[in-house]
Amino acid sequence: MTEADADRGVPIGTPITDTRVLVVDEDLGPVPFGVPGELLVGGPGLARGYLGRPDLTADRFVPDPSGTVPGARLYRTGDIIRRAPDGTLSFIGRRDGQVKIRGHRVELAEVEAALGGLPSVRAAAAGVHPGPDGHKRLAGYVVLEPGHGPLDVAALREQLRRRVPDHLVPGAWVELPALPLTANGKIDRAALPEPAGPAVTSAFTAPRTPAERAVAEVWAEVLGVERVGVDDDFHVLGGHSLAVLRITALLRERHGIELTVRSFLEHPTVAGLAGLAGAAEAGAPAAESLVWLRREGTRPPLFCVHPGGGSAHWYRPLVKYLHPDQPVAAFAWPGLQAEHGPVPSTERMAERYLAELRAEAPHGPYRLFGWCGGSGIASELAHRLTAEGEEVTFILLDPGLDNHERHELWQEFRLIESCVAKLEELAAAPPGQDTSVLRTEALALLEHLVDDVDPEVGIVLPEHGAGEVWLPSAKMWREVMELCLTYRHRPYPGRLHLIASDELADGKHEVASGQSFPDYLARWRELTGDVTLHRITGDHFGVMKPPHLGRLAEAVTGILGGGSEQGTG
């Protein structure tokens, strides 16, 4: 079963005759087809309630929220399901077994099943406890098979990552002699001990060089770990995206060490990152923009271009939904480009990315994917490769078009400029100055501009100053946005696969502001005569997250020739 299969759930059929069903959200509002929700059932066979349990009856037997049958009640099953347009229901999991960690819906039973399926694990449980930073952290409890101890967190974590997405991999691990059970033989979650701290690997090697000591010291501070060795893995220690930003900022500020998000993806250990820092000090070439998210596979690689935020991390979840034989790489914006000069043009960045692409894949066929703010660079890559006689499959998701004419995009750019100015003012403010009003204004702008913040962590600014994270990030957004606003798409001689989210098709996203979707599509056909449209449910960012991510992967796989997904001409 692929990850996309798991995301769709297990089909359980359609309701029987005279049975009424609704699929609703937490507020008992109806959800669209394909979106997970709780199953409510009713009809002539529905009981009146629980005998002698008025409290439970009131909780589970609720008035029909649709109001179509006056006085009717429906039963809250607690089952999370997804309903297809043909009425078929698919079981996803249980409401009471779900938790939300760092924005992801986590089914504890799914984690337990994956843990229990590892060869060295006899029994397993999962739970949620506060991490060192106070935010929720997934914990895995394992009873090992005889002869498989002691607990090797790094090995178990790597085995688990091959089976489930990263957000289902525990950040803390506990070895138990036996699982605590209730009188009914179920796992007694209340009796599961709180993890002592972030997991570390079984072998410890102390930092040996100044660079290793610097990296280990900052990791320990940010991740709340007492001791960090050179072979410890960032993800095993509970690292996440905001931790990357904090660590890179602190290393730059305290030690002059420059690292990127790519560094953590490709070199997740202290030794690996310190090695990059040492290479930079020795005069090694600057880090490239291309990040390999999956090198393995025999198919032509899919090369993705970062969206307007400049980060390649958005594409990482998509990889596991694609065919396992599909290599994937993504371009990330290569740090601030205009500190001492003008913002580079789209054409210039495309030339830079093309050189890196050709170095990795000297010959086609080439598969290009651009999303939103990355569509201009992706288009220029397609133009150049096509002009050189290469076979190109060109895919754009919710791409910007005629951005210079989009009033809402200019408004966003001005908000980014304002955010940069306020953060710079905060950074320059003397220690005793009252910056509370300025800080509130900056936070409000960040809340508006940031689309992928960790909901469990939120957006935080220190009481004084601008902190280490948001000012360089906002400067990068300004650069990419300025590049997008100055680019003009030109006629493309090949075929374009245009993937449109519901938000774009409904005319609610700023890349098409001021025009209808038919007009937007007609404009693309003026520039590219051969346009195939693919529609995906979900909003502009939701298509890159479950439950819609599986559908997007199906469309991309079909376009690349690995499936039957069909578009409309």
Gist of the model:
The protein is of the alpha/beta class and 569 residues long. It has 17 helices and 18 strands. Helix 5 (210-223) packs across helix 8 and helix 10 packs across helix 11 (375-387).
Chart the SSEs and their pairings:
Layout: H1 3-8, E1 10-13, E2 20-24, E3 37-42, H2 54-60, E4 61-63, E5 73-83, E6 89-94, E7 98-101, E8 104-107, H3 108-116, E9 121-130, E10 136-144, H4 153-161, E11 172-175, H5 210-223, H6 241-255, H7 261-266, H8 270-281, E12 290-294, E13 302-305, H9 316-319, E14 328-331, H10 346-360, E15 366-371, H11 375-387, E16 392-397, H12 407-428, H13 436-449, H14 470-486, E17 495-501, H15 502-505, H16 517-527, E18 530-536, H17 549-559
Parallel strand pairs: 10-11, 13-14, 13-15, 15-16, 16-17, 17-18
Antiparallel strand pairs: 1-6, 2-3, 3-5, 4-5, 5-6, 7-8, 9-10, 12-14
Helix pairs in contact: 5-6, 5-8, 10-11, 12-13, 12-14
Describe this structure in words.
By secondary structure, the chain is an alpha/beta fold. The protein has helices spanning 3-8, 54-60, 108-116, 153-161, 210-223, 241-255, 261-266, 270-281, 316-319, 346-360, 375-387, 407-428, 436-449, 470-486, 502-505, 517-527, 549-559; strands at residues 10-13, 20-24, 37-42, 61-63, 73-83, 89-94, 98-101, 104-107, 121-130, 136-144, 172-175, 290-294, 302-305, 328-331, 366-371, 392-397, 495-501, 530-536. Helix 12 (407-428) packs antiparallel against helix 13 and helix 12 (407-428) runs antiparallel to helix 14. It is globular and about 75 Å long.
Tell me about the biggest sheet? 7 strands, mixed
Identify the strand order in the major beta sheet: 12-14-13-15-16-17-18
CA radius of gyration is 26 Å
Q: What is the overall number of helices?
A: 17
Total number of strands = 18
Mean pLDDT: 82
